[in-house]
């Protein structure tokens, strides 16, 4: 697919834009853009093609306005009572949508997204990932084996993504022309916070994918695509929700297999500056037999053991009875 965009493509993206989406700091809304005459579409198409040709993303489109929303029944004096919403300029998101249409076929052709990743992918839902993992667990239970599992809690995975590491991976994965515009897209980004009528000064963004952006999810998938896996383990990811499972008739061996996988992941996390919450991760032994698998560690910290875990909105108990999910 050629990189040059056409007026038809631009017009199609604009028509599909949600008119209810809040604008960025420039106050340009989707309804305004949807009312553009043909000459306006022509101008935007020329602008987008020039950006791609020059591999330059305008600085004005790299400013996020953070709006603080008070959570229900929370004290307004406390900072943790607010949920930040990142608003980006609408024209920048239109360009991102066009760029995404050029990136997705490359990801499919080169098989850059691993099969175990179900997040932000067409025809891959949370329930599909849950079915995949529970099928593995059921086979273990039917074989009267022990299934040792670890469900990992990744700390602020999107907000703290290492830019230099991401650019290194993009350089190896994508053609130079796409890498160049994505590099410009990521660098020199800023944000300002709005609270009521007050606005903060501009502050630089030194890590993380742009919140509220169209390209952010795909960039995260590319950054984490090389998560270590093994034929002796089953790995399941949905964005940053990560689970690894190992089964064996001997509980000690099941834990040893799982521990080896966790050691590999631990090294990978350190290398790419991703932080895991070891104490918020969960170690569950799925079995119909008595006893549990020996504990495992992540980054030399023991992962807490439990009889159940909440994964992708469902409670999975150690015998897979679904009682915890039904009665909670």
From TrEMBL:
Organism in which the protein naturally occurs: Parnassius apollo
Entry protein name: (apollo) hypothetical protein
InterPro entries, per the entry: RdDP_mobile_element, RT_dom
Residue ranges occupied by any Reverse transcriptase domain in the UniProt entry: 50-316
